[in-house]
Amino acid sequence: MGNLGPTELLIIAGVLILLFGAKKLPEMARGLGRSMRIFKSETAKLREDDYDDRPATVETVTQTPAQPQPAPAQPIQAAPALSVEEQARQLEEQAAKLRASADKKV
Question: Distance between CA 90 and CA 34 in Å, rounded?
Fold first, then answer.
């Protein structure tokens, strides 16, 4: 059941073209590629976060005389982190704007 031969793949491709049209398929493939890229980057970030949360190993440190460090002039404010859904929504809005500008040019 899991083995698909070339004939079955051609039939599936033909049905997809009939259902969605030849013009929509490249757009769908691009969207799927973007989604996979976002998914991979987010999973990589999660792995890095998990790695950073591990307890530090005990190491021997040589004593050095303490030197006063200057205080920072102003605290740096980080931009608020966006959730994955918000990032995806922003990317979809940008894609829609680009498609609209491309349609105007054609």
Answer: 13
